[in-house]
Amino acid sequence: MAFLEPSPVATVIRETIIPKATDNLPINTMTLERLFLLSLENAIFLEKYNGNFKLMNLVFKIKNLLFICLIYLGFYTNFYAQAPYEDGFKAGADRPGLYLRLLKNKTIGVVTNQTGLMKDSTHIVDFLIQNHIRIKKIFAPEHGFRGDADAGEYVKNGVDTKTGIPIISLYGNNKKPTSLQMEGLDIILFDIQDVGVRFYTYISTLSYIMEAAAENNIQVIVLDRPNPHDGYIDGPVLKKTWKSFVGLHPIPIIYGLTIGEYGQMIRDEGWLKNGKKPKYTVIPMRNYHKLKRYPMMQRPSPNLPNDKSVNLYPSLCFFEGTEVSVGRGTDFPFQTYGSPYLVRMGFHFVPKPNFGAKNPPFERRICYGEDLRKYPKDLRKLDLQWVIKAYKHYKNKKEPFFTKNFWFDKLAGTDELRKQIIAGKSEKEIRASWQKDLADFEKIRTKYVIYPQ
Length: 453
Prior knowledge:
- With 453 residues, the protein is of the alpha/beta class.
- 32% of the residues lie in helices and 12% in strands.
- The protein has helices spanning 27-48, 53-82, 96-103, 124-130, 179-182, 202-215, 259-268, 307-316, 385-393, 407-412, 416-422, 427-432, 435-445; strands at 11-12, 107-112, 134-140, 158-159, 166-169, 187-191, 219-223, 234-237, 252-254, 280-283, 336-339, 347-349, 367-371.
- Helix 1 runs antiparallel to helix 2.
- The relative contact order is 0.11.
């Protein structure tokens, strides 16, 4: 049987698209056809109204007015319905013709959260049930199945109230499913919107899922989704000494792969535990381009509420390992930074408990810093200017800028960045120190790219 193969080849499912005959029908062709029909109606009206041209023209004008309104409304509705996907883009979840046949008559475990949505906002779990797919378990990553838990918050196992399906949390002490939790499953289906940054933990969850699948002879299928930091790589490459749940593999902070491509890489590079390789299948996106940006239907976690926060996230997340807040407890997390100990900085905010930040750092204290909500650039790099600036402005003799738990180093994947900032190195000098490792990683990355860039 296929699952007994010692090293099954990873698969990318593809399809041939046959357009409908009317998909590209020119508008002027349809208009001429309609004009011909109107001319025919004119002749019929002439006969019907026995030469009463005034009455005939009144009816004719009313019908033409209705026709024009219908055309306008048709174009208006069509434009706004297709505006985000005018190039025919489809996420993996929106291509059921490629994966439902793989799931029929199988027992499935689904790894997903609130981002597992189809284009019409149907959740992937609901869609599978509607199509009579047998789901035995739901596995939930950090922040939980509904995505409403704080970063690092303990999430209990439970039952989905809508479907009655058991939910197993893959966070806290149970980051990797046990053999008992995988028992009875034929396939693990993974559908989560990632953000393409090494310390964002959904790729670590995928890694542990793939390890457990390999150990229990279970196939993994990934429904691929866009990476909002795709098409480029940046930042220090992880050193083994600093391996943790916020960085499992030797990759840079921004690694330029979709989550489906990423899974192929860690499988084929032998980075999973004991080098085991599960049977692995990617349901690819349609008409996806790695340098294009696609709107997210749902926030990937409570403190990434919009595209701006996602864009700034890799550059600002370093502050989580310092005595500086990234705006948790405000309406604009990861779109600002500040601290009671930053002097001569004009902007200020006061963190308070809210959705996604029940106990925010510096709760109810004035934090001085910088407001980046209107930062004009669409960043395509890791920007160190803010952490370097904050370090220079920081004034607190009791607590050092970098927290004592070395969380900054875990996020960076190395202790070199912290030491370089303390030594007063410029951003240019720091970036230069990454280049050899980035060039080496690019040789690996290129092997797993399946989309144009």
